[in-house]
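hey all, quick one before standup. I had two proteins in the batch that finished overnight and I want to keep them in one place so we stop losing track of which output belongs to which input. First protein below, input sequence then structure tokens straight from the run.
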Amino acid sequence: MDGFRRDGMVFDVRDGGPRNGAPVVLLHGFPQDAAAWTAVSTDLHAAGLRTLAPDQRGYSPSARPTARSAYRLRELTGDVLALLDEAGLDSAHVVGHDWGGVVGWAMAAWHPDRVRTLTALSVPHPAAMAKALVTSDQLLRSYYMGLFQVPFLPERLLLVAGGEPLRRLFLRSELPRDVCEHYVRRMREPGALAAAISWYRALPSYPRDPVGTVRVPTLHLWSDRDAFLGRTATEETARFVDAPYRLEVLAGVTHWIPELAPERTAALVVAHVREHG
């Protein structure tokens, strides 16, 4: 499949690997797209796994609603359910990075019958994140989330001079230049950056839909040079998983785990899938 439909929108999907392999849904974060998983997918395919990597809501050109309410977490998980339905899958292993990890946590908590295992990269359980915001330096690390609540201005400032401020931000966090240029180019598409920031602007709605305890086997990957997400929430995450749980710390890696540590990521996912699949 190269896409799926939901509510009149069309989502782009990269579908690869053996069709009879155990299915793995790969969910990207901000400001990525399915290309973030290219190297990881190659190793997953070699291990006999099928991958489905969508360009999520706001990132697929034909799935870019403008209302902030369209980016509530219930809508984002609904997109993954629609993907599974379109692919004819009762369930799949779910791997998510950054915002994709948030969607993964919610999928595992709200729809455990559709999630065989969860692998969350970088982002801790949302409840652990909320606690860390008031008990650690996480609020300082997450300053940009508050700035993104301002209408219109962030996207205008980040896209001046051909997206140079956005480019500098990502290069400082050691995102490879060629990957950075790809993401900046995508964010310069009409409405793309505003849609991506809408994921943040929907955050005030999250207390109405709390992500509860996860009861599927969970692997959590965190990199110790992540400037955006600290250790406190990572270490608290185990309290919100009532199932086999493992934390793996990637030393010397910044936030961009799929791009910077694809071989290690793929090996950990394959082991997790084989142990609990």
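OK second protein, same deal, sequence then tokens:
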Amino acid sequence: MSRRTRVRGAAVAVAAAGAAVAAQPATAATDGPRFLAPADLPPHPSSEWFAGPVTSGQPDPLPLCVGEALPSTSAHRVFRTDYDTGALQVTVVERSTQRAKAFAALVREKLDACSETVMEEQPDITATQKYYGRVAVEDGAYVYGVHTESTWGASDINLFSVGRDGTAVTVVQWGQMGGYDGAPVAGFKKTTATAVRKLK
């Protein structure tokens, strides 16, 4: 999949990826950190959330900006609604706390440069971003918003967070078509805190 396709469909790609598993019951991880449940996500005004199984490896498509940083040892879970809103959680367990700190810092670097990277690589995309601050949970989590708008009229908003507890790091993405005014920042921060607490 080209980078252009990933950018253009950034907000809805996770929803599309979840469609194939929507009919299956969500399966809990039997080993390692726990993952978010549908009820942990910011409520959607018109739909339930549906969860795919926890799956080993990198998600496909890779999430905007942070995807290339995700190692093959990742595990992920895709969430979708009946509408244009989707979510993704990716968790990585490193061999040491120091390696986990370094990985979390790398993800933050990718998010800090997200809008700039998108526009450098895709001249027909205008991107802006906001930093929504630190969530005080375990070893800390950080929340970002990224809005992309294309010359052909597509407008997507994504929220991202990266958090760590010891050797485990989790990245959460929420996305839908639209702008910042439709982003549930407070609810997403609660989701992020829950995701990090579940790393134990």
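Flagging for whoever picks this up: Residues 3-197 form a domain with the Protein Transport Mog1p; Chain A fold (CATH 3.40.1000). The beta strands are 50-51, 55-56, 75-80, 86-93, 125-135, 141-150, 155-165, 168-177.
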